[in-house]
Design goal:
By secondary structure, the protein is of the alpha/beta class. The protein is built from five helices and eight strands, in the order βββααββαβαββα. It has one domain: Cytidine Deaminase, domain 2, CATH 3.40.140.10. The strands form two sheets. It has a five-stranded mixed β-sheet with strand order 5-4-6-7-8. Strands 1-2-3 form a three-stranded antiparallel β-sheet, with no helix packed on it. Strand 6, helix 4 and strand 7 form a beta-alpha-beta unit.
């Protein structure tokens, strides 16, 4: 357990003041109540279920990219239990080197909230953010980032470096990795396998 801002109790990445109504109802957590190990286990399970639910939405976005021949990467941004931003890789289609899934989701979420600060928002993305996207997440003040599979070539949320947890910046985001990792990784490996096969038959 760690101390969060404002004096709230934090357990891992979860603070009691940010537990949504479903978590509070299921565990009996309320004001002036401590969390015992059993309740904490329930919180972890429900958080995992929520993360997998939204990651499946990001995977659906990745499949949209795959359908048009783009590298299958997808992202969604969730605020108060609702998706306010979606994006999938469009770098080749536009073409635009900044048209990554996260960037497009951030832009849509900012339009939805009419604000550039995405406070209390969580971004779910199938592939670990690159330097550009990690920087944009810091700039947009996203509270939490959840990704599926690591990126050994460009990952800047823990693999090559972690720009989301850099104390010299003016914002740090909570991070969860490995959610539906096998499914997210398979999207990419299958895509590039097909791409190599198609090139070899030309």
């Amino acid at each position: 357990m760690t101390a969060g801002t404002g004096g709230q109790a934090c357990f891992g990445l979860l603070c009691t003041d940010s537990v949504d109504k479903r978590l509070a109802s299921a565990t009996g957590i309320g004001d002036n109540k401590s969390i015992n190990p059993l309740q904490e286990g329930k919180i972890d399970l429900l958080r995992q279920e929520e993360d997998e639910r939204w990651m499946r939405e990001a995977i659906a976005e990745a499949r949209k990219a795959e359908a048009i021949g783009e590298v299958p990467i997808g992202a969604v941004i969730v605020h108060e239990g609702k998706i306010i931003g979606r994006g999938h890789n469009l770098r080749e289609s536009i073409p635009d080197s900044t048209a990554h899934a996260e960037m497009l989701a951030i832009r849509e979420a900012s339009r939805s909230l009419a604000a550039w600060r995405l406070l209390d928002c969580t971004l779910y993305v199938t592939l670990e953010p690159c330097p550009m996207c990690a920087g944009a997440l810091v700039q947009s003040r996203v509270k939490r980032v959840v990704y599926g599979t690591p990126d050994p070539k460009a990952g800047c949320a823990g693999t090559l470096m972690n720009l989301l947890d850099e104390p010299r910046f003016n914002h740090e985001a909570e991070l969860t990795s490995g959610v539906l990792q096998e499914e997210c990784a398979s999207l990419l490996t299958d895509f590039f396998r097909r791409l190599r096969k198609s090139r070899s038959t030309r």
